Here is the input.
Amino acid sequence: MLLIACPFCGPRDETEFRCGGESHIARPGPAETVSDERWGDYLFNRANPKGVHLERWLHGHGCGQWFNVARDTVSHRVLAVYRMGDPPPKDLTP
Here is the structure.
């Protein structure tokens, strides 16, 4: 089980959170210029790295805030937690 340090509430058990998938994905646009292939890629294709992965998480059973987590997909170790809109930390070695 993961212990996630919510940037608003502090460390909490993983069961209080929901993963919202990969973070830092830019929506293509303007809409009228985006091809069906590019739109489909945006909607359905995500990175699935072995190692550091940047994810969005929701503290659903707490403050209700979204934030980002840098997590190692091999060890499941949380490497960093940072607020939405902030850039990922520079050194994210597992």
Observations:
- The longest strand covers residues 52-58.
- Residues 3 and 13 are 5 Å apart (CA to CA).
- The mean pLDDT is 94.
- Residues 36-44 form the longest helix (9 residues).
